[in-house]
Amino acid sequence: MNPRQRRGALLLVITSIGAIVVFFAVLVYLGDVSSKVGPMTAVVQFTRDVDALEPIEEDMVTTVEVPERWVPETALRSTTDVVGLVAATAYTEGSTLQEGMLVPRPGVQPGYREVAIVVDAETGVAGKVASGNHVDIIATVEGDETTPSRSEIWVSNALVLEVGLPTDVEGSDASGNFESTQGVPVTFALTSADALRLAYIESFSVKLRLALRGDGDDQDLAPADKVFLGQGAQG
User: Fold this and answer.
1) How far, in Å, CA of 166 to CA of 29, rounded?
2) Using an 8 Å Cβ cutoff, are 46 and 83 in contact?
3) Which residues contact 81 (CB under 8 A, 6 or more apart)?
4) Statement: residue 235 has pLDDT above 50
5) pLDDT in tens, 89-134
6) Beta strands in the chain (DSSP E)
7) Distance (Å, rounded) from C-alpha 234 to C-alpha 228?
8) Where are the alpha helices (DSSP H) in the chain?
9) CB atoms within 10 A of CB 121
10) CA distance linking residue 209 with residue 102, whole number of Å
11) Distances from the Cα of 102 to the Cα of 33, 48, 56, 106, 145, angstroms
12) How far apart are CA 41 and CA 96, in angstroms?
């Protein structure tokens, strides 16, 4: 072996020793970090932003591993604990779920009835109404020779329990011609009196619309403000 080969072999040995030293240094560092962080545990986090009272579905949450020492005692550990509940308020993507952040879906309280109707997917809901919202149910009724057409709020501040998926609805237009539209089943919690009013107007109205109320808006309108009469009259 000539001097150049000996220098090359020596350099290779030194490089190998250096790599081994670095490897063990990394192991020591990782061991030190692990000892400081501690064991890992699974928690549930949101995979996207969630609105208040939005129902939680399986693809909206995931489990991630985080250091156990940083996890609050109230953190939820399994997605099976959250699917089917609704968000108590709005949350951002990546938020760790804890007890109290989710609540059961709004249900029917004593004295109320669960009533479902189908409303127009475009004019009645338009993708804005969700479970937990409060809405006014507005119906348009055709007039006759003695009575003008009118729009009226038939049910005020109705609690929405559930909004279904759009489906094809067959019916007729104002001229009696056959037409097919997209309808959305919406379920409400109503008093017996409001349930009867809704059942009546659903049968005889030209169109039903839902007017979404803002958060905390429980104002009861005056009777004169609930009706609009056609032909330039209002009362």
Assistant:
1) 57
2) no
3) 44
4) no
5) 889 999 999 988 988 876 677 788 899 998 887 766 767 888 888 8
6) 40-46, 61-67, 86-87, 102-103, 112-120, 134-141, 150-163, 167-172, 178-191, 207-212, 227-229
7) 5
8) 3-37, 192-204
9) 18
10) 30
11) 34, 15, 9, 12, 54
12) 13
Which pair of structure tokens corresponds to residue 141?
């009724």
Q: How confident is the model at residue 232 (pLDDT cuts 50, 70, 90)?
A: very low
pLDDT at residue 224 in the model:
86
List the end-to-end C-alpha distance of the chain, in Å, as a whole number. Answer: 112
Give the burial class of 180: count Cβ atoms within 10 A of its Cβ; 0-12 exposed, 13-18 middle, 19 or more buried.
exposed
Q: What is the DSSP letter of 198?
A: H
92 contacts 113 by C-beta, under 8 angstroms: no
CA 68 to chain centre: 29
Inter-residue contact 59 to 47 (CB < 8 Å): yes
Q: What is the pLDDT of residues 185-203, one digit of tens each?
A: 999 999 999 999 999 998 8
- What phi and psi, each to the nearest 5 degrees, are found at residue 26? -65, -45
pLDDT over 90, % of the chain: 22
Q: How far apart are CA 50 and CA 88, in angstroms?
A: 10
The length of the chain is: 235
Tokens 């808006």 found at:
217
